[in-house]
Specification:
381 residues; alpha/beta; 13 helices; Alpha-Beta Plaits; Carbamate kinase; eight-stranded mixed β-sheet
């Protein structure tokens, strides 16, 4: 069970998470949490400010992090448990201050230090969520993902060693607790140095842990009702996709649909583990299921995705020259070639991918959002 940043953003959200997990106790869940919403970006800003020698901004960010995490903890627990939790949080905040000082002294932010800094968001959120679960009567054991998830030393986009990780995960998750809780996104190399799996990598972490444990399913809890037919920030009347194949979900992720981390599909597919995408604010909702290429998954368009040059830069750290001033709009779904004429009427001539799961067209960036809305209306309404 993976809970994203918006699912652990404050006391109310964490309380909902505890209720959801309580309903899964019979299935012995492993819970994976992200940093509280916007904290990873705060930590990125912290490292950048330290490298620039901006002591005032560093102090302000540390103060805001302390107030937010201490305040959330105080709303969820009291007494000795609260004091213990605040002490653990204070240790992490002190280490952040020390790392910021080292970065300032060096006048630059190296990738290894950056990964150590941005990993602190998951550590702090998981400490709070784990303590809150215990305060609510759940027997929760907190696990450090860095002692389980073993990777190479590509600091900000580390590649997991699946065999080493599986051995460590199976040893750590030994059945002694009702709930085991750990962090997404963060890991360590063979020397024990902190690495991360890439931006929004908590989904990938959850899929890897699920693979290691031969889980019955992986649940990705977010703030939308399953996987949608378009970005709800662009299109108001999106449709929930009930079921889609691993291949379709992977294509959607790579083409810009921001639901799952692009690598999430592969560990689950290795063991044929279904991925359920659910809304932590509406836990009784149906959500979406990503599974094998089942015969009952209908052909046809599943989603309209938009990727701008800025999106591409975020994913691969460089903008392709042919994206300059343009955006890529893709229609994803098995058998999508059958709707090429409809795409052409709205967006222009589209190119079908080699696997036949997407049809993409380049459009002027200024027109992209309007075209997505029009294309979605034509294909789904």
């Amino acid at each position: 069970m993976k809970f994203g940043g918006t699912s652990v953003k404050d006391e109310a959200a964490i309380s909902r998470v505890i209720g959801i997990v309580r309903g899964r106790l019979a299935e012995k869940p492993l819970v994976v949490v992200s940093a509280m919403s916007k904290v990873t970006r705060n930590l990125c800003s912290l490292g950048e400010a330290a490298a620039a020698g901006n002591e005032a901004e560093v102090s302000m960010i540390l103060k805001e992090l302390r107030e937010r995490h201490f305040g959330t903890a105080a709303e969820l627990m009291q007494g000795g448990l609260l004091e213990e939790t605040k002490s653990r949080l204070a240790e992490i905040l002190e280490s952040l201050s020390e790392m910021a000082a080292k970065v300032a002294g060096a006048g630059k932010l190296d990738d290894d230090m950056n990964s150590a800094i941005i990993s602190c968001g998951e550590l702090m959120s998981s400490i709070i969520v784990g303590a809150a679960m215990n305060a609510a009567g759940l027997r929760c054991t907190w696990l450090d993902a860095r002692k389980m998830m073993t990777t190479d030393s590509a600091w900000l986009a580390a590649r997991p060693d699946m065999d080493a990780t599986e051995a460590k995960v199976r040893k750590a998750v030994d059945g002694s607790a009702e709930v085991f809780l750990t962090q997404g996104f963060i890991a360590a190399d063979t020397a024990g140095r902190t690495t991360v799996l890439g931006f929004e990598g908590s989904d990938y972490s959850a899929a890897i842990f699920g693979r290691c444990l031969d889980a019955a399913r992986v649940e990705i809890w977010t703030d939308v009702d399953g996987i949608r037919s378009a970005d709800p920030r662009i299109v108001e009347d999106t449709c929930r996709i009930e079921r889609l194949s691993y291949a379709e979900a992977a294509e959607m992720a790579y083409m810009g649909a921001r639901v799952l981390h692009p690598l999430t599909i592969y560990p689950a597919r290795e063991k044929n583990i279904p991925i359920h995408v659910l809304n932590s604010a509406r836990p009784d909702g149906a959500g979406s299921v990503v599974c094998g290429d089942c015969a009952d998954i209908p052909e046809g368009p599943k989603s309209v995705a938009l990727m701008t040059a800025a999106d591409l830069k975020e994913v691969v750290s460089m903008a392709a020259s042919d994206m300059d001033g343009k955006s890529r709009i893709s229609v994803i779904g098995k058998g999508v070639a059958a709707v090429l004429d409809k795409i052409g009427k709205v967006a222009g001539e589209a190119v079908v991918s080699e696997n036949g799961l997407s049809a993409s067209v380049m459009v002027p960036e200024a027109d992209a959002r309007r075209i997505v809305v029009e294309l979605h209306k034509l294909l789904f309404v």
